[in-house]
């Protein structure tokens, strides 16, 4: 979630360089600078800001709503693994924070803020529409879906990142210079609209995805389509206010000037490294041949702060995993809160909600209390504390992941498989596998096995010899077993003797907290089953097994079993979150179907509420880190350089997401171990940042500017005095 800097002064966005005293100029064409917008209810607030605030609400609803379901879209719709889904999610997030630089350059150097917002919003809308169309299952094969989705995401990243630095600055332009108080309050309303859009969308779009069914599955087309409609509305509202806006002309991009100044200094220093010329106090002084001392001095101040930014991406690497790793963790948890079953991707709404709660608590309660205790809680210490809180949040996530894994299937390695025995005969059966020391005790009839047994194979697959002993009979069967697979040996009575089938089981929990169920038909006639109102399953006779079907939780008494002799109710009972079941149809008696249900994979027994502490910690960390960091960086830079620091701040978010992308793809590991890795890395970075902050000397840019003016005045006075003396002589 985006957070404004604290303090009375409004933030200077990236495409806002230096606010000037604008006047009417007929030569500017599309930029009527002093056009006065009608006021809201006779106040000093221009009516035009209402259009900007509504635009921002709709745009943020659009962005956060789409992003909330993105990881599960990759996982469930494309069937990508968790690492690839996480990598693409963070690649998209990183791109969203690289592209603001493009939007800033377009606005400051070419089109102006108004036209930049219009053009890039159109790109934004097109991206949303392509993304929504790509989520329609009947439209082409998976390759088509992937191409459409990636093109859509690229255009969305270009649109949302491009307009990000311009909209708030454009809103600030609507106020006359003397109305600073009203402009400051506007920014508070502006950021409230951001958080309101984020809060509502992260709760609503997962409902559209999971609770609404289209094309027989989760409705991702609708979950992406509604944010697309909100972005269309955002564009329409923004254009509707066109006649009311004050539009400022492009004024040149200070970020480019800073880059050119730094580049020239480095080039000039390397060019003169072999010459015997006087050394200069600072490496940026090598730009003095081309750039003014004032610009060089301001760049020096900015580079000091940018140097402090170097460790910051690690915080964002952890923070933005709420939409990827934490959402994936939630899919493996129990989501039943009694009165409401929460979707896994809905947990993300906690962050904007907690931010809205924490900001007044911290500003009005915690920080004044710390000041009363005479503790010097400097901005650097606040940011370091925010890092520690985020690290603790990931430590808790690691502990929860370990508890979750207790109900998951074990990870299989090459030459390893799992097997169990389901005895559907009337008496105990002794099962042995040649050269394998398994199943020492007889398997009782209709006994739910406690766990799978591990098979070590000779290669990628192996033919195994099974022996069954039952009431004095000894029967032998051969089955081929493949590595990294899970099997059930079904033993059943057949024509006065025993027979068996070896069937393949699920290797991992069902996705998105769904339940998986398959049926074994123990009748002597074929059956057709109807479950979950719209799933139809045909199972052949004599202990044939169906494929697994994914069902919603809470399936009670709504199944049907259709046989040659009639139609009977099929009572499945509770199919719990994340569990896998085998349901055996054993008999038809008294007008009802008799079944036996085995739990193959345990249900999710860790409740999703256990994620609340980690959301509390990371949201509190965000308030301390993000708000303080923005306010501190603004306070340490001259007015003309605030846009450069905004660019640096956004790039720290991009670099953090890029780091997660690299870890997810280059170093795959157990999820709990990855959480621990990020925790350790953030604590290490926090120590480095604290040391850097200890040696940082805080400055007041206004004082430095005053000293520079006095120095220049004194220098001019000395020069005038010298000239006067020479004239007298």
From TrEMBL:
Record's subcellular location: Apical cell membrane; Cytoplasmic vesicle, Phagosome membrane; Membrane
Q: Membrane spanning segments where?
A: 61-80, 86-105, 117-137, 143-167, 188-208, 220-245, 301-319, 349-370, 382-400, 612-632, 644-663, 675-697
Q: InterPro entries under this entry?
A: MFS_trans_sf (IPR036259), Oligopep_transport (IPR004768), POT_fam (IPR000109), PTR2_symporter_CS (IPR018456), SLC15A2 (IPR043381)
Primary place of residence? membrane
Give the reactions, separated by semicolons, that this protein catalyses: carnosine(out) + 2 H(+)(out) = carnosine(in) + 2 H(+)(in); glycyl-L-glutamate(out) + 3 H(+)(out) = glycyl-L-glutamate(in) + 3 H(+)(in); glycyl-L-leucine(out) + 2 H(+)(out) = glycyl-L-leucine(in) + 2 H(+)(in); N-acetyl-D-muramoyl-L-alanyl-D-isoglutamine(out) + 3 H(+)(out) = N-acetyl-D-muramoyl-L-alanyl-D-isoglutamine(in) + 3 H(+)(in)
Kindly indicate where the leader peptide sits in this chain. Answer: none
Task: Spell out the PROSITE patterns in the cross-references.
Answer: PTR2_1 (PS01022), PTR2_2 (PS01023)
Q: Identify the domain of life.
A: Eukaryota
Topology relative to the lipid bilayer, per the entry, is: Multi-pass membrane protein
- Record function comment: Proton-coupled amino-acid transporter that transports oligopeptides of 2 to 4 amino acids with a preference for dipeptides. Transports neutral and anionic dipeptides with a proton to peptide stoichiometry of 2:1 or 3:1. In kidney, involved in the absorption of circulating di- and tripeptides from the glomerular filtrate. Can also transport beta-lactam antibiotics, such as the aminocephalosporin cefadroxil, and other antiviral and anticancer drugs. Transports the dipeptide-like aminopeptidase inhibitor bestatin. Also able to transport carnosine.
Q: How does it assemble?
A: Interacts (via extracellular domain region) with trypsin.
What is the name attached to this protein's record? Answer: Solute carrier family 15 member 2
Q: Which organism is it from?
A: Taeniopygia guttata
Q: What is the lineage of its organism?
A: Eukaryota, Metazoa, Chordata, Craniata, Vertebrata
């Amino acid at each position: 979630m985006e957070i404004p800097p604290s303090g009375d002064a409004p933030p200077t966005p990236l495409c806002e360089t230096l606010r000037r005293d604008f006047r009417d100029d007929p030569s500017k064409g599309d930029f009527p600078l002093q056009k006065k917008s009608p006021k809201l209810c006779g106040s000093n607030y221009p009516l035009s800001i209402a259009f900007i605030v509504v635009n921002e609400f709709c745009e943020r609803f659009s962005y956060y709503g789409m992003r909330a379901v993105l990881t599960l879209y990759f996982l469930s719709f494309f069937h990508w693994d968790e690492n690839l889904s996480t990598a693409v999610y963070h690649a998209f997030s990183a791109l969203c924070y690289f592209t603001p630089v493009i939007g800033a350059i377009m606005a400051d150097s070419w089109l102006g803020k108004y036209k930049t917002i219009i053009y890039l919003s159109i790109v934004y809308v097109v991206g949303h529409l392509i993304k929504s169309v790509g989520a329609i299952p009947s439209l082409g094969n998976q390759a088509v879906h992937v191409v459409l989705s990636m093109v859509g995401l690229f255009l969305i990243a270009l649109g949302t990142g491009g307009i990000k630095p311009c909209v708030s600055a454009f809103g600030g332009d609507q106020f006359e210079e003397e109305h600073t108080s009203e402009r400051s309050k506007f920014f508070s309303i502006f950021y409230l609209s951001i958080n309101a859009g984020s809060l509502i969308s992260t709760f609503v779009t997962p409902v559209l995805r999971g609770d609404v069914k289209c094309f027989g599955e989760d409705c991702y087309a609708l979950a992406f389509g509604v944010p697309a409609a909100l972005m269309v509305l955002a564009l329409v509202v923004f254009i509707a206010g066109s006649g009311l806006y004050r539009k400022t002309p492009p004024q040149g991009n200070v970020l480019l000037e800073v880059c050119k100044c730094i580049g020239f200094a480095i080039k000039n220093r390397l060019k003169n490294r072999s010459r015997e010329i006087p050394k200069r106090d600072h490496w940026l002084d090598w730009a003095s041949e081309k750039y003014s001392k004032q610009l060089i001095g301001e760049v020096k101040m900015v580079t000091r702060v940018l140097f402090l930014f170097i460790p910051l991406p690690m915080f964002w690497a952890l923070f933005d995993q709420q939409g990827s790793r934490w959402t994936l963790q939630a899919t493996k948890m129990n989501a039943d809160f009694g009165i409401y079953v929460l979707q896994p991707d809905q947990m993300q709404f906690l962050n904007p909600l907690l931010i809205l709660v924490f900001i007044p608590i911290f500003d009005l309660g915690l920080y004044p209390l710390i000041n009363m205790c005479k503790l010097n809680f400097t901005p650097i210490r606040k940011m370091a504390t925010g890092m520690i809180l985020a690290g603790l949040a990931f430590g808790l996530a690691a502990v929860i992941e370990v508890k979750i894994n207790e109900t998951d299937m074990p990870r299989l390695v090459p030459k390893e498989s799992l097997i169990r025995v389901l005895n559907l005969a009337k008496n105990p059966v002794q099962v042995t596998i040649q050269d394998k020391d398994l199943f020492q005790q007889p398997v009782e009839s209709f006994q739910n096995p406690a766990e799978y047994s591990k098979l070590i194979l000779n290669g990628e697959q192996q033919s195994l010899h099974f022996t069954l002993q039952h009431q004095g009979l000894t029967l032998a069967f051969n089955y081929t077993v493949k590595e990294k697979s899970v099997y059930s040996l079904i033993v059943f009575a057949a024509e006065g003797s025993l027979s068996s089938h070896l069937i393949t089981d699920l290797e991992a929990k069902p996705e998105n907290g769904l339940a998986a169920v398959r049926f074994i038909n123990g009748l002597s006639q074929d059956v057709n089953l109807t479950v979950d109102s719209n799933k139809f399953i045909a199972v052949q006779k004599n202990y044939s097994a169906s494929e697994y079907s994914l069902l919603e939780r809470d399936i009670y008494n709504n199944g049907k079993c259709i046989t040659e002799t009639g139609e009977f109710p099929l009572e499945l009972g509770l199919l719990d979150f994340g569990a896998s079941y085998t349901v055996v149809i054993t008999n038809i008696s008294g007008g009802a179907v008799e079944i036996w249900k085995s739990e193959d994979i345990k249900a999710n027994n860790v409740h999703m509420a256990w994620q609340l502490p980690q959301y509390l910690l990371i949201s509190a960390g965000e308030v301390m880190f993000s708000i303080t960091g923005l306010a501190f960086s603004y306070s340490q830079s001259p007015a003309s350089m605030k846009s450069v620091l905004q660019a640096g701040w956004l790039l720290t978010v991009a670099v953090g997401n890029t780091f997660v992308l690299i870890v997810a793809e280059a170093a795959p590991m157990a999820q709990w171990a990855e959480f621990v890795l990020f925790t350790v890395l953030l604590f290490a970075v926090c120590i480095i940042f604290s040391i850097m902050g200890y040696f940082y000397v805080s400055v007041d840019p206004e004082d430095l500017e005053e000293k520079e003016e006095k120095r220049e005045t004194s220098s001019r006075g000395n020069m005038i005095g010298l000239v006067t003396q020479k004239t007298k002589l």
